[in-house]
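Assess this:
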Amino acid sequence: MGWADGAVRVRVPATSANLGPGFDALGLALTLHDDVDAWICESGLSIEISGEGADLAGAGEEHLVVRAMRAAFAVTGAQPPGIGLRCVNRIPHSRGLGSSAAAIVAGILAARALSGPGLQAADVAGQAADASSQAADASSQAADASSQAADASSQAADALRARRRTL
């Protein structure tokens, strides 16, 4: 496969769709963006992240942008020898502004630009929906776990107060 020479830049907006009831009907793109520069390198994986989620640079192949790129490349039947990424994240994570969806779209668009004309939007549209659904499920599970932990903490505090009253 002939890979694109040089880096490509993808800019993806935040969205209001996850803020709560009614916002998903409006689905506004906001003026808050993440920028992803991606390039094909000789081997390996290099990820630089600044801004939101900078601590995720060590996620390697599990990084959401990389996973989306790998899935898009799989449609072509070829994986590049190496991937370089530079992400400037301005969309806050876990705040309902679509940071996971933005990462997935950025990965797919970057892969499409790097693979040349062989990868069409229709080829990866289903994968984008699947990946976004998986990210939403993971986010929901994390929120549930956080809620359960808060409930358990509240119950423990209640038990401690009740015990103090009996002493």
About this structure: The longest strand covers residues 29-40. Residues 134 and 140 are 10 Å apart (CA to CA). The radius of gyration is 20 Å. The chain has one domain: 8-166.
